Amino acid sequence: MNLPMKKARGFTLIEVMMRAQSFMMDLANRQQQYLLDARTYALDASFVTTLGATTPTTVATYYTLTVTPAAATTPPTFTIHAAPFVAGPQGVDGELTLDNVGSKQRNDPGLGLVPW
């Protein structure tokens, strides 16, 4: 018996999280290039635009992106945060972080900080 296949629509929650992680890695690469040019990381509220990037709709729909610290440090550092919208389907996944040394973590509500 052949059952008709359903037409795929949209993204799964895992695919959305993977896209957020991929975009965060792209931003981290851009931060390193920015550091070479400006001698500091892009730490302003509009750091994505400062780095010449645009947040993909698939990421912006589910996550808020921020960067810390708010001011330059010595030595220069950054941590990119992707916080899921609490009311959205990604809300239970916890915040994703990626820092200037490449440490990738997810703040799992049940397990605490775990690598991604």
Explain what this protein looks like in three dimensions.
This protein is an alpha+beta fold and 116 residues long. It has one domain (13-115): 2-Layer Sandwich (Fructose-1,6-Bisphosphatase, Chain A, domain 1), CATH 3.30.540. 29% of the residues lie in helices and 22% in strands. It is built from three helices and five strands. The chain has helices spanning 13-38, 47-50, 57-60; strands at residues 63-68, 79-84, 96-99, 104-108, 112-115. Strands 1-2-3-4-5 form a five-stranded antiparallel β-sheet, covered by helices on one side. A hairpin with a 3-residue loop joins strand 4 and strand 5. The N and C termini lie far apart (41 Å).
Give the overall silhouette.
globular
Could you name the CATH topology?
A: Fructose-1,6-Bisphosphatase, Chain A, domain 1
**What's the count of strands?**
5
Distance between the termini: 41 Å
Radius of gyration: 16 Å
The total number of structural domains is 1
Number of helices: 3
**Mean of pLDDT:** 91
